[in-house]
Amino acid sequence: MEITKEFKQDLSELESVCSSFLGKYESQLTAALNKAEMSAEESLKIDLMLELITHLSSAQFVSSYMQKEIVKEGILLQDKAGNFTLGGTPLPPMSDIEVYVHDDELDQDVWKRVFIGGGSEKRICGLRHPDLTSGVHARIRG
Question: Which SS3 state, helix, strand or coil, does residue 19 take?
């Protein structure tokens, strides 16, 4: 799938609309959640609003992410301190990265978006490869 100029513009508009909606209704939802008592109907509306906000937040993040260019690419390594590095720079926890791995279901190599997780012991999260540590081709968008 090609990311055309028109597609990027539409992604930008989607991100903007999601941001506007979330900004407009987030405080109302927070106030509703803090009510001591509510009717069954109010409770349902709050549940639905939470679900909507979750999906809109995801859409906003993904539309923003898809517009970013690759800023760094290389081999992902884990240093002696346990930090993952790409080009020598330690990646902070929760860093989004893309790794080039083999997908058994597709039976081909693909790029997968993952993140660096963990506290004192860092690991790559978001894949079904629990033993994946370092030496894999990776890139970062920014």
Answer: helix
Going through 9-103 in order, the beta strands assigned E by DSSP cover 70-78, 84-86, 89-90, 96-103
Closest to 115 measured CA to CA, from 99, 94, 140, 89: 94
Query: Does 107 share its domain with 128?
Result: yes
- For residue 74, give its domain range: 70-141
d(CA 41, CA 68): 41
Domain boundary among 26, 44, 67: 67
Q: What is the reported pTM?
A: 0.78
Residues 47 and 107 in one domain: no
- Note down pLDDT in tens along the chain; length 142 residues: 788 899 989 999 999 999 999 999 888 888 888 888 889 999 898 889 889 999 999 999 999 999 999 999 999 998 888 899 998 889 999 999 999 998 888 999 999 999 998 877 888 888 776 556 678 999 999 9
